[in-house]
Specification:
317 residues, alpha/beta, Rossmann fold, six-stranded mixed sheet, 27% strand
Length: 317
Amino acid sequence: MTSEIAVSAEGLVKHFGEVKALDGIDLTVRKGQVVGLLGPNGAGKTTTVRILSTLLQPTAGTATVAGFDVVKQPDEVRRAIGLTGQYAAVDEYLTGRENLRMFGDLYHLAPKYVKERSAELLEWFDLTDAADRPAKTYSGGMRRRLDLAASLVASPSILFLDEPTTGLDPRSRLGLWGVIENLVQEGTTVLLTTQYLEEADQLAEDIVVIDHGKVIAHGTSEQLKDQIGGDRVEVTVLDPDAVGRAADALRSVGNGDPLVEDLRVSAPVSGGSTVLVDAIRALDAQGVAVSDLQLRRPTLDDVFMSLTGHVAEEESA
């Protein structure tokens, strides 16, 4: 089983003076898996990645990457990984192609291999047309793609992505998601840190939620959502006087007390989408006119709010 584990951390602690950035993080990433490290700014995500990529040493605890100890065998770890940080680490005065060749030189790779690999990556990341332009002429999304391409020059088996879509517009973010999904299909193991809940929902098979340097939840997206309850039928009525009748209707088809917020009434239900038919019939029997009716599945936003009492994207002190 150990041979199937790409990244493992046990009891990671990191102090910066009086500040305890990590307070006993445990983490396991299996080969070929995408694990999302989810948490707000200041939760400890970047500190965890920096320790796993040998840029920081832990105050306590142990970690292995590709079977190598991050403290005792840092050179072996670095040869096995690729790393993309929060900000694009490209030389803006070099062209896209020159940036990739520079990274190849840093890895001491054969020039012929680097030339072929660079051409391959430029095409893969849709940068061929801009390959010989200085990176300072690139858009933010293009720089992020070039940065990710640079981390793949040495064909690493394990990739650390530290908030790779921070600052990107929605279109660029979706494009980068597609690139990450392609990498995983090729067999790359990915540890992804993010404060974007929809990103973790889209990309990660397994999610570790951290806050204030501690793991506060762990599981698949669906498992985390199930922790705070199942589906809810949510209805918005047209007439304020009909709110009470709407609550009675949903109570008859649900399995718990309805929640009323202004003109919106919701109730926990089971049975999936078929319950909508029952809800429509019950509302019609009560003479309730509605402007909206939906079956709502809990989101990771709901999970995070339930676990921490605040939203994921807020700044930590």
